[in-house]
Write a structure and sequence with these properties.
By secondary structure, the protein is an alpha+beta fold. It has 16 helices and 37 strands.
Length: 643
């Protein structure tokens, strides 16, 4: 096997990890290029300085979808919805943005109300109430064309049960607008809940044109370098070829953060730790995740930048508390940190690239926690400029520079700790029973403080901590999914019916995949009348009753009670997963050039370090707080324990 490259694009740095046939890892780090992420990807691969023939795979984690949802720079979407249900995106679930704050509002829908076309048709769960005529389809197509769309989304009521009207209207619009893509809600998410299905389909349409252009541009850049076409990490933690990813843009919303949790899970399996919270602190944001039983927790969906995307995703809670988060004073005279970030351009003041506002990174430098002689991605750190920026902020607050720097870091820690509680306590997981895995450039800097706030006693700072997301991308297997609506009472499903559902979904998911493949199947199950489901694993040997029993055990463990109600299987989803690329930890890299300087990768001292201490790692910096002791792990990295 040739090199497998993982390239993770962050807000400040683009990280690369190259995993060889022997499992060894070599890393690089360069500044991100926000105007065109593909430039940073190309620069990171060029910094590896290996012949193109040595590269067998390029795996990429991108923030393109997240950024366009945050910045609202996606495509002009025209939505076709059933007449009488054209306000779904506006009405949402009729919940408030803030229960006690009437000034808060939900983000505007991705499809403006003026770009929603009503369709005279109606399908109910039990059949067609009003048939879609060809004349009506032609009328809708003409109205859509008059709105000059970049892309069209067709999402009609109850199409999860019968998508015939969606398909007929999509064909008619495609004939009328042959150069415009048409997305159907049933193809994106064939499950109940009209709002979530429509919102997810619109998110797909909103992101797809820009994602396609970006992946084409990236593929062309890699081709000019003689490299293979890229694979792209999905929110669910697996890889898709770029050609397939371009048709599943909504599934890339958490592409980059998912790679970090995948990498953390691989490290945890190597040291035989099953349950952990993960925290990835980069230049722009901090991402909290959860690993249970040695595997990343995958949820059926969630919100990204205020947009519901009901597709499987590795559980990640993102907060604006990265190294580049800007510290400022609000109108009331209080110190605030974020959500604004200095990003890669201009970056923190210490980067010397034009930044003038103090950041979390500048606060660490002012406290002596970062070595100003060290380089980060080829950027020198100017300690004097960082201290001067913190000093200006301290003067505005009437405080000392040291107290101000400590307060900046404490505010960032509080924000990250809240995210860690949301992914654990709110799901019935006691953080004290877990290990904290801290990575990213800033994770090891904040780990002891975060663990202390959550009552945790053990921290793992993994090998390749500063680029672990890129490592996760490099080793992640190909993963393809297929789903279907079921909507049956579980006890009515015979074993042959369950086997048929699994067989059909498996063949769809495995299509175009080669090599050794394992299949993971989950049913979405609830008590009849509930407004939420739990994902329950199932196999071809199961009947509906077996799935129901498994659901009762899981529901009781998660919520502490069960109900005397029928159990309903809402939907089923199958993931076909290829073979992961193994890591070999006996040799954590090879001596060589990293980020413009020559030094061995990951060469920790052989004896414990008692806090307070600061340890400079190969691609990050670790703070060992008073009362904590750090011990080197045999595989590289550190285990940090409270004394």
């Amino acid at each position: 096997m040739r090199l497998s490259l993982g390239v993770d694009v962050g807000g400040t740095f683009t990280d690369l990890a190259a995993v060889g046939a022997d499992g060894r890892v070599v890393t690089r780090k360069v500044l991100s290029t926000p105007s065109d992420q593909s430039e940073g990807v190309g620069a990171a691969i060029a910094a590896l300085d290996v012949p193109a023939s040595a590269v067998g795979r390029v795996a990429h984690g991108t923030t393109v979808v997240t950024n366009l949802l945050l910045e609202r720079k996606g495509a002009r979407v025209v939505l076709c919805a059933t007449a009488g249900a054209t306000d779904l995106l506006e009405l949402r679930r009729q919940e408030r943005a803030g229960l006690y704050d009437l000034s808060l509002h939900h983000p505007a829908p991705l499809a403006d109300a003026a770009c929603v076309v009503g369709v005279a048709e109606r399908i109910a769960v039990r059949g067609v109430l009003k048939r879609l005529t060809q004349a009506e389809a032609d009328r809708v197509a003409d109205e859509v064309a008059a709105l000059n769309p970049d892309i069209v989304v067709v999402s009609l009521l109850h199409a999860y049960a019968d998508d015939s009207h969606e398909r007929r209207l999509a064909r008619t619009i495609a004939r009328r607008l042959p150069r415009v893509d048409v997305v159907t809600g049933s193809s994106v998410l064939p499950e109940i809940r009209e709002y979530e299905r429509t919102a997810t389909a619109v998110a797909e349409g909103y992101a797809r044109p820009r994602v396609r252009r970006y992946l084409e541009r990236l593929g062309s850049r890699l081709a000019r370098q003689g490299l293979p076409a890229p694979n792209v990490m999905t929110s669910g933690g697996g890889m898709l070829p770029a050609s397939a990813a371009a048709q599943r843009a909504a599934s890339l919303a958490l592409s980059g953060p998912a790679g970090g949790v995948v990498g953390a899970a691989a490290i945890l399996r190597a040291i035989r730790v099953r349950d952990a919270l993960t925290i990835d602190i980069g230049g722009t944001s901090a991402d909290a995740g959860l690993v249970l039983g040695g595997e990343p927790l995958v949820e059926p969906g969630g919100s990204v930048a205020g947009v519901p995307i009901a597709l499987p995703r590795v559980l990640v809670e993102t907060v604006s508390a990265g190294g580049g988060s800007i510290a400022w004073v609000d109108d009331g005279g209080a110190l605030r940190v974020g959500p604004q970030s200095a990003g890669a351009v201009p970056g923190p003041v210490a980067f010397g690239r034009g930044g003038v506002e103090p950041t979390v990174t500048d606060a660490h430098i002012a406290l002596g926690r970062l070595d100003a002689a060290e380089l980060s991605g080829g950027v020198g750190l100017d300690a004097d400029a960082a201290r001067a920026a913190i000093g200006r902020l301290a003067k505005a607050l009437g405080a000392t520079s040291r107290r101000t720097a400590e307060a900046i870091i404490a505010i960032a820690d509080a924000s990250v700790a809240r995210a860690l509680r949301r992914v654990s306590v709110e799901r019935g997981i006691d953080p004290r029973s877990c290990v904290l895995v801290a990575f990213g450039g800033g994770g090891p800097l904040h780990a002891c403080a975060l663990a202390g706030m959550l009552g945790m006693r053990r921290i793992v700072v993994p090998p390749y901590a500063g680029v672990l997301s890129a490592v996760g991308l490099a080793i992640a297997p190909e993963r393809r999914e297929a789903a279907t609506s079921v909507m049956r009472i579980a006890s009515e499903l015979k074993r042959t019916e369950v086997a048929h559902i699994l067989g059909d979904l498996s063949s769809r998911a495995r299509k175009q995949m080669v090599g050794r493949i394992r299949v993971s199947a989950h049913a979405r199950v609830r008590y009849a009348g509930q407004g939420y489901e739990l994902d329950v694993p199932f196999a071809s040997k199961d009947d509906g009753a077996a799935v129901a029993r498994r659901f009762e055990v899981l529901h009781r463990a998660r919520y502490g009670f069960d109900l005397e109600r029928p159990i309903e299987i809402v939907a089923a989803r199958v993931a076909a997963i290829g073979k992961a690329i193994p890591l070999r930890f006996a040799m954590q890299g090879e001596p060589g050039r990293r980020a413009g300087r020559s030094r061995p990768d990951l060469a920790p001292p052989s004896r414990p370090v008692r806090g307070p201490a600061v340890v400079t790692l190969a691609d990050a910096t670790m703070v060992v707080a008073r009362g904590w002791t750090a011990k080197p792990l045999p595989i590289g990295g550190w285990i940090v324990e409270r004394r």
